[in-house]
């Protein structure tokens, strides 16, 4: 006896999963941002846990950064024969902004591997942990603003309308911190050697970036300074520091600094969306 199969009885072909799509990646970022109460709380808890049972608590953030900046500023200011009234704020601002950048890279690379239990037990978007790192970096930056205020009271800079450029500069810092955490965080979860490599690279880039030295100290002759400055300009961190430090020091910031930062931001976000699209769903299995 033969059975006649009706067309309605034939199961429909299963639709392909959309887990690896840009739409899901964008949704993850949106849902994660909407869960800001969660990452607000986690970020504050990270700060509290770091300084638990400490008498001064988060004030150690200000003390550590301030002492380092002042010591380096006085030392290298003497070595290079710089005016301390100008050089000390220059170094302090460099340290503060560099700390934000370096913490986004190094802590972002460890964000998933260090929160294995939370990721597996808490059904939340992957981006929640990304925003948590950025929020924590902003809290630390806010503490260090005290150093900027004190230095500006002691050594008032020649501020003008360009000081308002610090706002778009900080917005770009946050946008870059997000994509850096996404890319390095996810890739470091899969390849743990990346975190160790980043630690070495960040330390090397620190000395290659004008933080404790200035571009004016690169040479004595105009031609020598010009050729060395071209090498410095190959370092993207130089441009990131210039767009934030320049306005606060009352110095004009050339447009090409902004162009480089905007270009790096655009490329970084493209890379971040590709990483989110392809590997976001695998984070829970890799940690």
Please give a structural write-up.
There is one protein chain. By secondary structure, the chain is mainly alpha-helical. 71% of the residues lie in helices and 0% in strands. The chain is built from twelve helices and no strands. Helix 6 crosses helix 7 (166-190). The protein is globular and about 55 Å long. The chain starts with 21 loop residues before the first helix and ends with a helix. Residues 1-17 have low confidence and may be disordered.
Uncertain spans: 1-17
- Measured between the Cα atoms of the first and last residue, the distance is 56 Å
Shape: globular
User: Main β-sheet, in a few words?
Assistant: none
Secondary-structure element order, N to C: HHHHHHHHHHHH
Radius of gyration: 23 Å
Keywords:
287 residues, globular, mainly alpha, 12 helices, disordered N terminus, 0% strand, 71% helix
What layout of secondary structure does this protein have?
Elements: H1 22-34, H2 36-50, H3 59-80, H4 84-110, H5 116-121, H6 127-154, H7 166-190, H8 193-208, H9 222-232, H10 236-248, H11 255-279, H12 283-286
Question: Gist?
Answer:
The protein is mainly α. It has twelve helices and no strands.
